[in-house]
Amino acid sequence: MKPTDALSFLVELAERADEIALRYFQSQDPMVREKPNLGPVTDADLQIEEEARKQTRNRFPDWGVFGEEEGEAAGTSATRLIIDPIDATRNFIRGIPVFATLLAVETDGEIVAGLVSAPALARRWTAAKGSGAYLGPRKLAVSQIQDLASAQLFHGSIGGVEAQSLPPGMQNLLQQTERQRGFGDFYQHCLVAEGAGEIAVDPIVSPWDIAPLKLLVEEAGGRCSSLGAENSIYRGSWISTNGLLHQPALQILRG
Question: Which of 109, 194, 209, 219 gives the lowest tally of CB atoms within 10 Å of its CB?
């Protein structure tokens, strides 16, 4: 399958996911439960992933599916759908419109199509391998800022329990950049792809948190890796940059 064809299928999945998400968003009873790992899950999460799995089985029965809520269902081909039905679930629960469905198609270990749909923001980012990255119809490109003193840095939580997972040089990197904003989750990496910032740091991630974001940033001309500099979504951490500041940022984060 061509990457552009895979992306067309992700658009179909996103249309249905947006409909479900908006039906539950800001409802009086989003049906929140706690998963065994202490993270929240809502009926919207479960229904979006269930619907995506059903559509994938119907259209591509040989594909596998790897999702946050139901885990991995192996297929008979080298292709699988990776899905985070609602990224930033805590935002969703609190009525904050910064949440999204993350969808990616992986073939032979390589992400070939990715989509991030944030319906409450009316924004959708897409990328197909070799075809560029887009926000709606607008083609994206990372910024060309080359010095940390002029860079904007995005991050998630830097206090509380999550502070224990921060890389040793995080505070130093915060101090060396011009501006810092705590968007967190998917949005910070989308902003790097848009050229609105230069660095986004995620100390703890799962593959479904970053699968489409990797392709989005790379197709916009940027660079992604784990904090250990591995070009893989399976290493448990993530940093997206405009490419020009990738190595300097990594060196500082390592302390």
Answer: 109
